[in-house]
Design a protein that fits this description.
about 400 residues, binds magnesium ion, binds 1,4-dihydronicotinamide adenine dinucleotide, alpha/beta, Isopropylmalate Dehydrogenase
Length: about 400
């Protein structure tokens, strides 16, 4: 196995803690790599006016693989307040470096798998027939288009004249909004392109085929959002018919899907959606398998091979300065496993996942979230494992 270089981007708050623990687990599992630190996040916004410095972009260009912890984002005005005094007259505007990273490297394929770990006390349970309590086994892989749609950033408040004139040329805009003063109008666009839609659909179908899932569900709202959701579903129908006849294509609306996910989550396999609905449905499913301490993700450009792997949680600032960190490192460790999948280090990925599964099933070492405690500095005294103790338990299991 050749030695790789991974760009480790801790970011802010608990990002560094969970990333360090994941790297310890990777080392213990025998993954041979050098790690170079990529600067990203709030500190670099405040000091340099840029939360994603050019040097970090260059590191990813060079090494192609990034492990990312989490960043802190704050509203525009607060961001300006915290900017170094000498940068305040430079008309800098804060925007999220992780969104910028996705767009810069065209990381348009976002995969968020949600799988139940046997023995996780946070697993979703439901009432069955009579007195029965059921614990359905969730195993879904959510493919979220990661660069366009509602998060594409094409938006206006008080839209400029050419935009307003174009909007007015649409009969529905004219009828429903034509009487509203332009300065009272805000518009966020939802742009889907054929190319990106095709790529996310293809990624979803290929994954279903490779991993033996029987269905791909397009989770959008084509009956109402006819152009964008409609295009995605129409393209999925064609793709399924021509290339994946052995895989069933299902169609759910995002609102109904959020209701069904607590009724029959075990029914679904691969789910594919645009940027915002993919974000929503993946958080929904993550809630069924333990929440933020368990939710991992991969963001990939299949053409260049660039991939950034990150837990979906944020920097949890309220826990960042605890003398002993209490947060669950499993989401970050699972994200590192997704990096290993991408690098085709399947054996190491499998070994780590098996160790995590064993620790969860045994139930002796549990972080505060798994103990259903409210986060506080004294949870460790009350029996919860610290972040490091959880990683230690996984490493002990790896070494058995
Ligand atoms: P958050 O995910 O940081 O925290 C929400 C709550 O989830 C925390 O209070 C904590 O109870 C729990 N939590 C988070 N990670 C956990 C873990 N590993 N183990 C156990 N419990 C965990 O989201 P919040 O509070 O909305 O945002 C905090 C900051 O993070 C904000 O500045 C936000 O912009 C940023 N953020 C960054 C993301 C990223 O880097 N991709 C994603 C989401 C938020
Ligand atoms: Mg989200």
């Amino acid at each position: 196995m050749s030695k790789r270089t991974i760009v480790a981007m801790p970011g802010d708050g608990i990002g560094r803690t969970v990333l360090n623990e994941a790297i310890r687990v990777l080392d213990a599992a025998g993954f041979k790599a050098d790690y170079v630190e990529g600067d990203i996040g709030w500190e670099f916004w405040c000091k340099e006016g840029n939360p994603l410095p050019e040097r970090t972009i260059n590191l990813i260009k060079e090494h192609k693989i990034g492990l990312f912890g989490a960043i802190t984002s704050k509203p525009k005005d607060e961001a300006f307040e915290e900017l170094a005094p000498e940068l305040k007259d430079k008309e800098l505007v804060y925007s999220s470096p992780i969104v910028a990273l996705r767009q810069y490297f065209g990381l348009d394929i976002c995969l968020r798998p949600c799988r139940t770990y046997v023995g996780n006390p946070l697993n979703f349970i439901r009432r069955g027939r009579g007195e029965a309590i059921e614990e359905p086994e969730v195993d879904v892989a959510i493919f979220r288009q990661n660069t366009e749609g509602l998060y594409g950033g094409v938006e206006w408040s008080n839209p400029p004249k050419p935009v307003y004139d174009t909007l007015m040329s649409h009969p529905k805009f004219k009828k429903n909004f034509g009487h509203v003063p332009v300065e009272e109008i805000s518009v966020s666009t939802r742009i889907f392109t054929k190319n990106a839609t095709e790529r996310i659909l293809k990624a979803a179908f290929e994954y279903a085929k490779e991993h033996g899932y029987k269905s791909v569900t397009v989770c959008e709202k084509p009956n109402v959002i006819r152009e964008t959701s409609g295009m995605m579903y129409k393209m999925a129908l064609k793709m399924q018919k021509e290339l994946y006849p052995e895989i069933q294509l299902w169609n759910t609306n995002i609102d109904a899907q959020m209701m069904w996910l607590t009724k029959n989550p075990e029914t679904y396999g691969v789910i594919v959606a645009g940027n915002m609905f993919g974000d929503i449905v993946s958080d929904g499913f993550a809630g069924l398998i333990g929440g933020l301490g368990f939710a991992c993700s991969a963001q990939i450009n299949p053409e260049t091979g660039v991939g950034v792997f990150e837990p979906t949680h944020g920097s949890a600032p309220k826990y960042a300065d605890y003398p002993v960190s209490i947060v669950n490192p499993i989401a970050m460790i699972e994200s590192a496993c997704m990096m290993l999948d991408h690098l085709q280090e399947n054996e190491i990925a499998h070994t780590i996942r098996a160790a995590v599964a064993k620790v969860i099933a045994e139930g002796k070492v549990r972080t505060y979230d798994m103990m259903k405690m409210s986060g506080a500095p004294d949870v460790v005294d009350k029996g919860a494992a610290s972040t490091t103790e959880m990683a230690d338990a996984i490493i002990r299991e790896l070494k058995k």
